[in-house]
């Protein structure tokens, strides 16, 4: 895996101040097969980083490593200057709950809960007061054009609306870092890009850095920088696999 950063400001930088999120010499392999090798990056407040690359090039893997959902094979990941990649699962879960917001590629909404309950979930896990929770949920539903849909079940809304619910949920507790894996397949590019543009705007308004996996050149051009992951790994059948 090699990395290329075509936009102006370099990914590799050494600065004295701690980045909000950073990784160095980050590598990951499945059963000895390298997926990512020696990734270096830092994210400062409000920076929006697009991650692009072909299917199977390791975009979701990188996002999961940076969000503490996977443990690297080598290298380090740090939040506000504190390395966390070797923390226990429990401690990393707590870090995610409090400080990170993640939009997964499959949305990962909870079908038993309504739209509003899904958005409220991180706030309830953080035990915020009910009034604060309902005010925050109302604000987010309005912000992501879901105003009338709070009481709907997840199977009663469209794919684009589900994506916006997942974004609203990831942002509900005002995380310090946002991660989003743009959904593929089920949504047309324009619908997906609209929701993601709204997320970029909301992240910038809060000065929250965002790592955004996107297939869209239009979306990437709205970001501050692009990290391009090159060369998908081919499986023994010569096909590129993806999750
Ligand atoms: N749990 C796993 N076990 C083994 N290999 C895996 C696993 N998850 C992913 N991979 C492999 O790692 C590589 C990178 O996968 P990843 O999901 O990060 O790709 P991606 O760039 O996000 O692809 P896509 O654009 O299709 O979402 C692929 O070759 C994939 O088959
Ligand atoms: Mg992926």
Folded structure, characterized:
There is one protein chain. With about 240 residues, this protein is α/β, with parallel strands linked by helices. It is about 35% helix and about 25% strand. The chain contains seven helices and ten strands. It has helices at about 60-65, 90-100, 115-125, 130-145, 160-170, 190-205, 215-220, and strands at about 5, 20-30, 35-45, 50-55, 75-80, 80-85, 100-105, 175-180, 210-215, 225-230. The protein has a six-stranded mixed sheet, sandwiched between helices. A four-stranded antiparallel sheet has the order 3-2-5-6, covered by helices on one side. It is globular, with a radius of gyration of 18 Å. The two termini are about 20 Å apart. Bound molecules: adenosine-5'-triphosphate and magnesium ion. Adenosine-5'-triphosphate binds next to α1. Magnesium ion binds near residues 59 and 60.
In short:
This protein has 243 residues and is an alpha/beta fold.
Reading side by side through the largest sheet, how are the strands ordered?
1-10-4-9-8-7
Bound compounds, please? adenosine-5'-triphosphate, magnesium ion
Number of distinct helices:
7
Total individual domains: 1
């Amino acid at each position: 895996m090699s990395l290329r950063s075509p936009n102006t400001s370099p990914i590799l930088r050494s600065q004295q101040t701690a980045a909000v999120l950073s990784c160095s010499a980050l590598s990951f392999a499945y059963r000895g097969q390298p997926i990512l090798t020696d990734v270096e990056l830092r994210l400062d407040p409000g920076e929006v980083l697009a991650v692009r690359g072909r299917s199977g090039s390791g975009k979701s893997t990188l996002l999961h490593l940076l969000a503490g959902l996977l443990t690297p094979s080598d290298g380090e990941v740090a939040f506000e200057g504190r390395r966390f990649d070797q923390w226990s699962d429990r401690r990393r879960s707590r870090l995610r709950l409090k400080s990170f917001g993640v939009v997964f590629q499959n949305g990962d909404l909870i079908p038993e809960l309504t739209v509003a309950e899904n958005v409220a979930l991180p706030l309830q896990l953080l035990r915020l007061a009910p009034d604060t929770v309902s005010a925050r949920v109302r604000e987010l539903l309005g912000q992501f054009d879901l105003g009338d849909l709070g009481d709907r079940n997840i199977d009663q809304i469209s794919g684009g609306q589900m994506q916006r619910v997942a974004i609203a949920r990831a942002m509900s507790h005002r995380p310090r870092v946002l991660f989003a894996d743009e959904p593929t397949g089920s949504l047309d590019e324009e619908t997906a890009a609209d929701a993601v543009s709204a997320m970029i705007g909301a992240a910038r308004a809060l000065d929250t850095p965002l790592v955004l996996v996107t297939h869209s050149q239009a979306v990437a051009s709205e970001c501050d920088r692009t990290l391009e992951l090159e060369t998908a790994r081919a499986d023994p059948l010569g096909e590129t696999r993806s999750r």
